[in-house]
Amino acid sequence: MIALTSPIRTPWHRIPPGPKLLALIALTAVAMAVSGPLPLALLLLALLACYTVGGGRFLRHGLAMLRPLLPLVVVLMGWHLILRAPEAGAVMVLRIAVAMGAANLVTMTTRLDAMIALITKVARPLSHLLPPKALALAIALMIRFVPVMAARHLAARDAWRARSARRAGWRVVPPVLLGTLDDADRVAEALRARGGMS
After folding, report:
1. Confidence (pLDDT) at 187
2. Among 53, 137, 157, 194, whose Cα sits 20 to 30 Å from the Cα of 80?
3. The pLDDT value given to residue 2
4. pLDDT tens digits, one per residue of 24-54
5. Alpha helices (H) in the chain, listed in sequence order
6. How many Å apart are CA 149 and CA 175, to the nearest integer?
7. What are the structural domain ranges in the chain?
């Protein structure tokens, strides 16, 4: 498994995870509260400007990480065009783009160990309900599995293209899901072999 943290250093890397997560929550809340496509488009442009602070290579890397969202965007816009509600579709797509783009920027510029330390600290008051270490580990595994699933999807799609002239479409979804479940089983066995969370 690989981490999502970008090796390309940017000024955002120097900011601690706490302020970045608070900014992410605030930006997502604003995006959900705004109801017009124009202010959402301006928010998205401001977010792209934040990516450009890291340079062209960092911007391309960030956009590449968001590429798996394209099918969802196409489906949502197509559905709203069928419903003759393009403005509502644009608002939904822009909200998703702002929220996911901001989350991606935070993830790319924050070390996983710093994120885990923050989650453990914040979750400590809830330790009687949920062990903070277990919560931090679950979130860390979820973050680390994102690129694994993306790489698995690309490999399945390339394998399909090598064997068929037709588009892969939904046919690559079952092997990707089964492979991910198999990975989850192996990670769980490895954790049990090491004594779980102790």
Report:
1. 77
2. 157
3. 39
4. 999 999 999 988 899 999 999 999 999 999 9
5. 17-33, 37-52, 56-65, 70-82, 86-108, 112-123, 132-163, 173-193
6. 11
7. 1-110, 127-198
Contact status, residue 107 vs residue 40, Cβ threshold 8 Å: no
Confidence (pLDDT) at 44: 94
Contacts of residue 66, Cβ cutoff 8 Å, sequence gap at least 6: 97, 100, 101, 104
Measure the CA–CA gap between 81 and 61, rounded to whole angstroms: 31
Structure tokens given for 56: 């062209």
**Residue 164 CB coordination number (10 Å):** 10
Pair of tokens at residue 49: 């400007």
What the block records as the tokens of 72 is 């969802």
Residue 114 contacts residue 64 (beta carbons within 8 Å): no
**Cβ atoms 24, 130 nearer than 8 A:** no
| Residue 58 dihedral angles phi and psi, to the nearest 5° | -65, -40
Residues in the chain, total: 198
Stated pTM of the model = 0.70
